[in-house]
Predict the 3D structure of the following.
Amino acid sequence: MAPQATPPVPSARPLSADCVPGLVSVIIPVHNRVHLIGETLDSVLGQTYGDLEAVVVDDGSTDDTGRVIARYAAEHGPDRVRRFTQDHRGASCARNLGMARSRGEFIQFLDSDDLLAGEKIAVQVSALRRHPEYDLAVGEVLEFENPEALPEAPPGRARRVLPFDSYSGERPFYIQAPLYRRSALREVGAWDESLSYAEESNFAARVLLAGLVSGRTPDALAYYRQHPRNMRRALRREEELAGTLRAYEGVLDEAERAGSPIPAWFRLKALICRSRLRALRGDAGGARGDLKEARALLAPGHRRRRAGLAARGVLLRFLGARGYTLLFDAVHRLARRW
């Protein structure tokens, strides 16, 4: 079965107003994941909520990923598993194409190596129907270490994902946690296709700046697979920090051009990221300056946070940029292990 035609995607508002009431569109970008895409599709097609479509965008795969998707489309029907292809342009571009071709009243993003628990979508659709004031329902995420398959009881740590209206920026953003109303997501716009890393942070910040209201659905669980091919693990630390900073600065520039208010915590997060990047590059003085500026953004009541930033500045002064970076990375690795 041939994939469906893929005309150009609009860049500003990839979601049309037209939709099928009650339908959930699960948008899955995929590139060379022949060994995992089947599990991901099984987790989508096995949802207890039956009114959904898997919108799978093959981002120029060179292995047999396309053949696996074609088999699922043949088995479940082209309206249930909808296939699209593009040249290898990245996950953000593939998500935008999926959004443009989606038909659902609700939108779920899912990476091709991650999974959804069977009740996930049903729980969140129910929450959005009960609470018309919610623009999105945000579940929780379980990280697990396994390169090939999901164990029956996945090892790992459950991550509580806060609703976006109280999101502090302290925790990672998992794109599989929320279920969005299509009408609300249209206000956010497209994923930033210029970003090769931290596009999720960029998108989450724009969700916040758009003023979308979210509610927690702790029973709606998704699984985040950690394995050697994760983007975060594949990148060197400097590339990771530089990409994240670029994502944050892009949101700041966009908000300033639009005259939108920017939460202090987001400016704080960008400054701390820039401080770490400068330290990694050997600029201890610049890193201390960023930390000083970050402290000035905190109200006097945030004593512990202010003290923590001051302590980082002292460590930078006495350990130098290299010693500070080595210590920070060692503490970060230990925290991740626990």
